[in-house]
Amino acid sequence: MTSASANENCLGWAARDPSGVLSPYEFNRRAVSSDDVLLDIAFCGMCFADVLWTRNILGTSKYPLVPGHEITGIVREVGTDVKHFKVGDLVGVGTYVNSCRECEYCCDELEVHCSEGAINTFDGIDVDGTVTKGGYSSYIVVNERYCFRIPENYPLASAAPLLCAGITVYTPMIRHNMNQPGKSLGVVGLGGLGHLAVKFGKAFGLKVTVFSTSISKREEAINVLGADKFVISSDEQQMMALSKSFDFIINTASGDIPFDTYLSLLKTAGVLVLVGFPSEVKFIPGNLILGIIFYICSQFEARLCSICRTLAKNESFLAGMKSIVGSVTGGTKQTQEMLDFCASHKIYPEIEIVPIQYVNEALERLMKKDVKYRFVIDVANSIK
């Protein structure tokens, strides 16, 4: 097959305006360059980013917009200089498809943090000046550096969510040494990210506690995902009983949480990682430095929850040197390591496979959190 064949029509589903409604769309991909890989897409996971961009929530969407950045498929063609892939290989593509390759972050294989800005898999500006289009489509052309080998015998449908949701929680867990057996991890929220944080935590040998406002998630957290404990985060007594109990907490929720309360649950030098997107992050700085929940004068006291006010009166809760950190997906090296780790430890996301024709309903359900825990589009068998 010649590289010119990559210009053949690509079938996709695109949003045309901020309504976010997707419908069939035909377009051309760029020709395969010497270091490119063309893969026929088998599956594409559905991420909340697909909602944000198709509906122009961030105000930067370029229409028509083909979403999807959790892509798995089979190599159909490789450029003449490609060294790591061959026709027939099982591969994945994640949240970005290019970067400058020269800055300190790219040189450290942390391309997601590229100083020039990594090129997003969809709605970014590609190397040829065109707007990138994502995995809700029949095939994609990507530089080989940004492709990942799917381990043998690992299901392509299961691998798809790992390329965004999976690496989003895996990256901070490795960076902040959350892979020490016997340590304690709290997971806030039990959605697409949270359920994978639980699975990784158990694989690392951690004692995992799930925090949720919904008691209905208890049985699944304990009996399906393997969490050690489940806590209703709105129950003040349950929360107070866990003071200074956790080495690590990962907040996967996008809703606002009482940060001072969660800081009180950390041990000395504990780490609270944000991978969700709350509307604001508010906490008393002294709770990082000294760890005491400061008892503020009466004009501020009303801003503190009753848990914080109770803890403030007891100096035995001193435990400082804490950190709040943020994290996004991950670099190419770590993404491949994560895929290999999932294969060797038999870690599989909980998924619901849907045809491409169901994407609009799936996006509506995604906004309502009506999925356990990740939609995956069966692109190969449904796109026509």
From TrEMBL:
Q: Which Pfam families match?
A: ADH_N, ADH_zinc_N
This protein's cofactor list reads: Zn(2+)
Residues annotated as domain Enoyl reductase (ER) = 20-377
Keyword set includes Cell division: no
Q: Is Metal-binding among the key words of this record?
A: yes
UniProt KW keywords: Metal-binding, Oxidoreductase, Zinc
The record's listing under CDD domains reads: CAD1
Q: Identify the PROSITE patterns for this entry.
A: ADH_ZINC, D_2_HYDROXYACID_DH_1
Q: Which family does it belong to?
A: Belongs to the zinc-containing alcohol dehydrogenase family.
Can you name this protein?
Answer: Alcohol dehydrogenase
